[in-house]
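Incident review: delayed structure delivery

Summary: a single-chain prediction request sat in the queue longer than the usual turnaround. Root cause was a stuck worker, restarted by the on-call engineer. No data loss occurred. The affected request and its eventual output are reproduced below so the record is complete for anyone auditing the incident later.

Affected input:
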Amino acid sequence: MTTGGTPRRRHRARWRVMVALGLALVAAPFPASAQTAAGDPAYEAQLQRLAEILGALHYLRPLCGAEEPSVWRDQMDQILEAEAPTPERRARLASQFNHGFASFASVYRACTPAALTAVDRYMAEGTRLTRDITARYGR
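Output delivered after worker restart:
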């Protein structure tokens, strides 16, 4: 017997990882439950996507040993403090954060190359969103 199980088991495990990564990356540009309401700022959809990315990073970065667990939650708290949203808007942003966290928590139990790829892509997208929002709507 070889280490790591039979070739069929290794293939299934690899397949599950690829499917999970594919689903995460396909869903990435299209926020699952981003909703806006009358009176929300023009950048609300972008901010909700950023909240989802922060939630994903809150799970993935500590999993891969990158930093302390609270870094990305603290970033979300700073956004909420700066925005001073209504309770309904705050709930939507928190929901997006939690969705990002849960999406990866349901798939990854250990840091994998696929998780690192997702981190890299989310870091780049989060940086772009932050830059776009502040450049277009910053005070």
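Verification: Residues 43-137 form one domain.
Action items: add queue-age alerting; document worker restart procedure.
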